[in-house]
Amino acid sequence: MTEPAATTRRLYLPEAKWYDFWTGTAIVGGRMIDAELPLDRLPLYIRAGSILPLGPDEEWSTQKPADPIELRIYRGADGDFTLYEDENDGYDYEKGAYATSRCIGTTPDRC
What we know:
By secondary structure, the chain is mainly β. Helix content is about 0%, strand content about 40%. The strands form four sheets. The chain has a three-stranded antiparallel β-sheet, with no helix packed on it. The chain has a two-stranded antiparallel sheet with strand order 1-4. A hairpin with a 5-residue loop joins strand 2 and strand 3.
């Protein structure tokens, strides 16, 4: 990524199951891999058991509603995740005006 005209980068993935963020391809860790380096994206690998929340691009917290939120659940290990939501623009959270949603494990029906 720092060498001119490089198309791959050798990197180490620790012992675990990993997923390519862009393609969803599963990769066995504990070894070196040659990651592709296209100009339009970073090589990004997600560890099995991760629960990754994704929402719309925002420049500030009240720009637009955060819904819908996409939860990407990477199977292969158990994970735990709590989504926290509040009004984004005040201190009512101090009075309990917030919501949490918990995901346990890596199956969508447990969220």
